[in-house]
Amino acid sequence: MGRIYYINFYDKRFSKVKRKTVKMAKFLLLTLLLFNFSAHYSSGIAYAEQSKVVRLEKDIPPMFIGKAMLSLRVRLETSEILLSGASYDLNAKISSIYSTYIGNIAVYLQLKIGKLDSGIWYVGILNNNSTEVFLKTKFTVPLSIKTGDAFNITLSLIPVEKGDVLKTSFCVEQVKTFGYDTLYNKELIRIEVGHPEGVSNKVILQGSEAKLYVRIENLFQLQLENVKLFLYFNRTLVYTQSIGNVDAQQYYSTEVRVSTFMLKEGSYYITANISYMMENLYFSYGVLSSVTLDIVKPEVFLEVDKTTIVNGDQVIAKLKISPAKAISTIGFLSIEIVKEGTVVGKETVYVIEPALEIPLRVFILTEKPTEVVTLRAYAIADEKPFYSNEIRVRIISASAILNNLIVNLKVDKNTVFDGEDVRVQVNTIPKFNISLPVSVERYLDGIWVTVKNLDVYEGEAFCTIQLPVGTNVIRAIIRVGVNEVESQRVQVKVLQKPILQLEGPKTVLANTTATFYIRLAGERIESLTFNGMALLYNNENKLVLNRSLNINFGENILNIEFRKDLGKYRLEFMVPTLKLSSTFDFEVISPNFSIILPKTIEENSEFQVKVISEQKINMNATLTITNQESGKNVLSKKITVYNGEALDIIKGVPMGKYTLTLSYQNYSLATTTFTVIRISRNINIILSTTRVEAGGEITVEVRLAPPPSTTTIALIEIYSEGTWIPLKSIPIGSSGIAKEQIQAPKDVGTYKLRAKVGEAVDEKEFEVIGQAMLAGIQPIAVIGAVVGISAVLYLVGRRK
Questions:
Q1: Is the pLDDT of residue 389 over 70?
Q2: Would 797 disulfide with which of 135, 315, 407, 747, CB 3.0-4.6 Å?
Q3: Nearest to 711 by CA among 784, 639, 787, 768
Q4: Model confidence at 232, in pLDDT bands (50, 70, 90)?
Q5: What pLDDT, on a 0 to 100 scale, did the predictor assign at position 7?
Q6: What pLDDT band is residue 200 in, cutting at 50, 70 and 90?
Q7: Which band of pLDDT confidence, cut at 50, 70 and 90, is reported for residue 401?
């Protein structure tokens, strides 16, 4: 039996043979079939022997040729399993069981898989002398068939003498087909590679073993045979294993150990490939695992903050582990002090981060004024030490330095507030080009308590400290081993922290400027200046203003102009030196004001103006009345809006057309217009008497016709010595009548009274009789109040 050659399709990421299109595969397959190569092929090309054979015997129902009858029996042999693109043997034997036809019948056999033709063959002639015909041939399964396509046989019978064609078809259900969609469907094989710990990335030491979990799942309906596993780190093959068979719908799992002795440090992705046979065809499939592996070789780098110290002082060892990922492989790290090949000191720490600073006190027993020691560090990973570089440190005897040393302590201010920093300066005489440890200490209940530790280098050291409220005594002291030198003592008074207050309007109008008041309350605040900072945040907590502002004499104001950015705001003011801050919340709105007043007003009448806002706000605003013709303001007055409302009385506006504006700062909140008209009226003044004693009372009645619709003011004047002098203003309501009591002058004589409303005028004469009480004329002022109107009385008399 000839061999059938098959092109293997690999996953395009991991195969050495690139993925071909189906069209190209058909071309290559047909080429190989035509030439029937007998040689073995390298990776990517495999061959298959025919699998288990199906033997089928089937009787065909009788067929009629004219009046003659023909009955056939078909015996068929072919492969039980047909794979896409492969070729197989087909053996057929067609026998005449019963025939009444006299003549020759040509027999043809046609094969279809699914809807695709796979071949048509002439089998032979049946007649009375030849009742059996045979066919031995090969056929090729089309690449484009699908799994489960039916295997159909059609027999065509042609009576030679007549030329008619009889056909009969049947399906060979015992034959199973597997198409391209199944054979090369990578989703039917699942390969998983992971770390046993369940992590996505693992870090191991170079030279150690990498433990991996591998799972191969077969979702085919066929068995995977002769499965072999290949693991790659990047492009390097690191592991192979023969697994055997994996049954259909089953899986295989294993834990493998891969040596990294021959691998370099670095990051690796992991690829798993398998090769297998299925129905005597070779396949290969691979996946890129989602887990990665880092192979590291830790390196430890050592630095120190100083290489010359006083015996008993400490150095700060700065250690860096590279690469940073190697930290997970390290258990602990040690620093050694080595003198003449002997370890005389050691400090060990557990490693939790790749960069460390470890204080290391260096003290050795020696009588020499100067010694040299070596510092080195090492990390322990998998019980292996990884050493750092070595650093030589020079050690000077403490007594040689401290015996003649003088320490001075200074502070930038002796009085501060609670929370405020005190800047400390430490100086030594003489200066040395080495670092000396110094402690700033505070005296508390009979003992010295350390506030801060620092180093003096070349005779100087600076730091900032904070002290509690009250009077504090501090000092600086240098200690090296059992030796110490103390500075003079300095007193620092700490006052209670002042209180920061921030006030302003809770509601701010758009297009206006809001004023905020900042105050500091506390001891000695009035004589000091502090730097402050104002930060304004909008309702999205975005910083929209950053302004510096000094606090002088305990207070200052902050003006902020707002445009059309409405919403809630938060103002924060900070005094950094005192570590104080205060916040104030407010809202910027665009209020909707309306003004209510009569549209038509009579001249010289008084009228009510009402202001209403939809927002219930409190504020001070200004009412301005402007003449529309001249553009001049005839009135401007302040009003108070409380809970969104304000009410005011206006009088004395002359005839004309006006605009009434409600404004805040320079921003107009609302406007309206009104007209003041003049109505012709008759006025009549009636006196209760025309003769009255000096200083007596006269009842004055004023009648206005027609009566006014709103309250109108009538002006009462008295004529004396050739001049009309205002005496009193009388409000006249809608009745058109008003009465008022006036006091007669104290000087005897004849007087005139006049009432005026606009251009309407009426006057009457009366006489004062009797002896006046005063030798001269004395003006008397009487102040009264009539429903929102101020009335002023001027009494002027003359002698006869």
A1: yes
A2: 747
A3: 787
A4: very high
A5: 29
A6: confident
A7: confident
CA distance 386 to 258: 23
Using CA atoms, how far apart are residues 218 and 344, in angstroms rounded to an integer? 64
What Cα–Cα distance (Å) separates residue 789 from each residue in 507, 536, 652, 753, 755?
A: 35, 48, 11, 21, 17
Give residue-wise pLDDT tens across range 161-192.
777 788 999 999 889 888 766 666 666 788 89
Tokens 């259900």 belong to residue: 173
Cα distance between residue 696 and residue 694, in whole Å: 6
Q: What is the pLDDT of residues 414-424, one digit of tens each?
A: 999 988 899 99
Q: Which of 2-6, 179-183, 225-229, 465-469 has the lowest mean pLDDT?
A: 2-6
Where b means 16+ CB within 10 Å and e means fewer, 731-758 reads bbeeebebebebebbbbbbebebbbbbb
The rounded distance, in Å, linking the Cα atoms of 562 and 346 is 66
SS3 508: strand
Q: What are the residues facing 610 on neighbouring strands?
A: 596, 647
Domains of the chain: 4-48 (no CATH), 53-182 (2.60.40.10), 185-296 (2.60.40.10), 299-396 (2.60.40.1930), 400-489 (2.60.40.1940), 499-584 (2.60.40.1930), 593-677 (2.60.40.1930), 682-794 (2.60.40.1930)
CA 221 remoteness from chain centre: 51
CB 688 within 8 A of CB 756: no
